[in-house]
Design brief:
By secondary structure, this protein is an all-beta fold. Strand 4 and strand 5 form a beta hairpin. Helix content is 3%, strand content 38%. The two termini are 35 Å apart. The strands form eight sheets. A five-stranded mixed sheet has the order 1-31-30-29-28, with no helix packed on it. A five-stranded mixed sheet has the order 2-3-4-5-32, with no helix packed on it. It has one domain: Prolyl oligopeptidase, N-terminal domain (Methylamine Dehydrogenase, Chain H, 7 Propeller), CATH 2.130.10.
Length: 421
Amino acid sequence: MIRIASAIGILTLLSACNLPFGAGQAPEGVATPVEAEPVATAEAIGPAPQLLPTEVTEPTQEPLGAAIVHFEPGTQFIVTTIQMTNQNLGWGIGGLEGASDHVLRTGDGGSAWRDVTPPEPVPTEGEPDKAAAGYFLDSQVGWVTYYPASLEPTPGQLRVWSTQDGGESWTASQPVELEFLGSTDFPPLVGFEDTESGWLLARSGPAGMHRYPVYLLRTADGGRTWEIAIDPFVGGLQSCEKSGIVFADRLTGWVTVAECPVTAPELSVTHDGGRTWESAPLPPPEKRPTLFETELCEGHSPQLLSPTEGALAVSCSTGLLLNYFYRTEDGGQTWQSTLYPGGTLWLSGPRTAFALGQKIYKTDDGGQTWEFIKTVQWDGQFSFVNDQVGWAVARSGDAIALVTTTDGAVNWHLLKPTIAP
């Protein structure tokens, strides 16, 4: 199962004045900073494992230019995107104000980090900083792509960096010429089903008149080469803004869309790895058969546990402000829908899910009932490794911080990410 969540950070230096909660204050649901464990050494984060064969890990290109310089030990920084792989090990993307994104790896649950940024060239004079998006299959294997941190459409080459050894070494993919590389309001989305098969979704240019054309790229060799599965100038996923994408395996995937002029929420489904897509409008809730005729409702947070079993959320943003949880066990042939508290959906098993927003809820019965967990005073990009242990990049206005929970989101504790010595 693949879950993607991407966020473009507000790159501000970590200090009490720019946290979502000021010095000596904590909003409801967040504990004041606990004394951190001693900063872990690089050894504590873990030695590099035995490398895979050189044909996989050895870079095939000459140096691409002056690279982003790694942080010095002791540097405190902001994590803007987090993806943990277990209770201790995980990855982050972030950095400092007015600089390009770094890629980082932690071995102690988010306090001490190692800077493992790939040798991405720094922007040339006059170019915007570079933002990063990535996906990490486990604590050793991951992929990262860079794009201009700008709202303006920017043509250029897309290059994906891959690592098999926790960021100790990186290989750059063959470059792909695209009309548009993404923007801060629609960053590229990256995902992999296994070590060889993956995808990348990037918008191809400015939107307009309910048209949001995208490129969908696929790789079958671990990210060394990419082919265009969907070309927006030929056909494919062109209509409506994409609110989420997920693949269960190399063939079956879902895309949810938003800001569509159609009345019923729409799900796009592929069974051939993304080369062709079919539209699958969702049925209205049984108790409100005319809901989609009178309200504007949109799908988001698609989740797949297998090619046939999955779920998504539907939010109606006009008069009624209703949210629904949709589940299927037969690949979308039939759906069960129940009321949903709202927010981002995260499915941790066939019956267990979280509704993640400023109000956090949990279900253990497939969405029939939702237990209220906590109210927090921030919006978050969440990363859970089980139904008890998770992290969030917490944002309140321009302030940002990294927080963690070990009791199922009941209590959250502040972390201060620091580069290990």
